[in-house]
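INPUT
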Amino acid sequence: MSGPPNDGNNWGMVKLSGSARTHQAVGDVGEHGLLQLIAERFGRFKAPGVLVSIGDDAAVLKHIGPGAVLSADMLVEGVDFDFAWATPSDVGAKAAAANLSDVAAMGAKPRCLMLSLGLRTRDHVADVLALMTALARVGRTFGAPLVGGDLSRVDGPMIVSVTVVGEGQLRALLRRQHARLGDVVLVSGSLGGAAAGLALLRQGQRAPRSFLARQLRPRPQVALGLALARSGLVTSAADISDGLAKDALHLVPPHLGVELVREALPQMPGLGRVASALGADPYTWALTGGEDFELVVATRQRDVPRLKRVAARVGETLTAVGRVVKRPGLSLQGGPIPRGGFDHFGG
Amino acid sequence: MSGPPNDGNNWGMVKLSGSARTHQAVGDVGEHGLLQLIAERFGRFKAPGVLVSIGDDAAVLKHIGPGAVLSADMLVEGVDFDFAWATPSDVGAKAAAANLSDVAAMGAKPRCLMLSLGLRTRDHVADVLALMTALARVGRTFGAPLVGGDLSRVDGPMIVSVTVVGEGQLRALLRRQHARLGDVVLVSGSLGGAAAGLALLRQGQRAPRSFLARQLRPRPQVALGLALARSGLVTSAADISDGLAKDALHLVPPHLGVELVREALPQMPGLGRVASALGADPYTWALTGGEDFELVVATRQRDVPRLKRVAARVGETLTAVGRVVKRPGLSLQGGPIPRGGFDHFGG
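OUTPUT
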């Protein structure tokens, strides 16, 4: 270990005083100064069930459960986000959404977010606060205030490491790998928009805005996840972060597979136009693009109409896209399976 | 955002199959291969209260509370640890201990750990698993199994980002800034050992082992924290991660201060010898070295003997080192206050 390392730099160590110096770099205000600004800006929100927020060795929430749900997502600059086309606010909002989506996929209610940031001394304080403000805002929107975290210096890419805590009813939680042979596979909303948005941003394009928003400001399906869990009609569920081709397989145990129907995929409206403008294949985006943060669920054939009504009551749609089959792995009716799936380590 | 980013690379996506290939680099086995190894090694442990561990969108624990306690610590290679003298196991064990220490300082019971790792393709799989194994072992020792997390690629220093969840009785939780004028300030165990260990390691020395262990394998004061919380005798508490000079001030509200007595500091046995061998000042190590992960607490004068007996019953000692005074900030009887305190951003 090198410096006096784990120097308890939880945000709890901050005493409130001093005024904001947001125009400076992180290295100018120092860790203590930045913690002060964070406490001033984020320590004051009162949220139901949050007994201690930023300002102690740890945050304290009133009891979580009966099922306490925990998930984590670490975003790394240059790998998971790029400031060439995403603002700090975009990054914060997306970090929150990606984490909340995991809670949604369990059919649980988000309760709080924890954020650990790895920053460079050259990073601007205003950018750090913008990232945190967007993250905290998205969290609050879905009932999960930002309650604590950590700061560390990184001589490398910026690190945005989030942990989300949710709560749910134990028997109602939506699990992976629990679908049964013959179950129908459905997806919420529409697919391919986030991948199209990414392709547009990479080419420096700033329209159509709806596609950019799908990439930069994804919306976690929290209300839908809760409604599906309460319905008791879902045999298995996951969120679509890697792309349907990969995430649909999370629904089934290893000895079963999923057969998708290419023509059934609910493409985001206008996807075909963006694809042909960029010379891309909309089906590939919809199948493997990922980051749509929709839910993919399985249900018994006879429950499909009821489940669609459950979704409609929270203003969402579910589209049948395939079925659980005997043959393990993914099959696709209507076309070859595009090579896809992101592997952080290129394995 | 660049790749298909938040690719849901929670450990939940893993299907168990294949055999361990621990002699390879992370880039050889790929993300999926590494996740497989992680699930094989860490997904099988059954722990009371853990309903879903590695293997779904999120981990699920039976209800946490009445007070759910959350803390986070992010360790960065080159800043918070250095593989020049710490093994991957050391880093994992310390990451767990640093987080558990925050729960101990709240007087709460650890329940689980979440781990997000930022790795390079060149990192050895065996080292990653060794780090995780040590972290999981320390967690289990204190009742907090590793239940989930995330992997991401980092083209920079290795990132070890941990979140710990604990539970406690709401009224009994040990808070910061709640000490009152005239309270006695006590510390558990002994001080300066971790700083001495760091100084030895930096000079390439491998003895005395007790000091190296204090730096590399710190022990969180979980049982003591729980006993102190149950006693109802502690007015305020924090853990010593930044050094007593900084952490003692966490006990008091901003309008009060702490006066420490230099000669009262419980130095780790043999600290003087190591200090004189290295030409260092043992008092500086004890006051500002940090990372001892002892607890610093405040109590009313009349409760000091009872509190010491509470500590003795869990095999620990408490030593009175000072008092809460009117003058804000830190005062020191018996010598000048050494400059200290680690600031990640050098502010």
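end of record. Residues 1-9, 11-20 of chain B have pLDDT under 50 and may be disordered.
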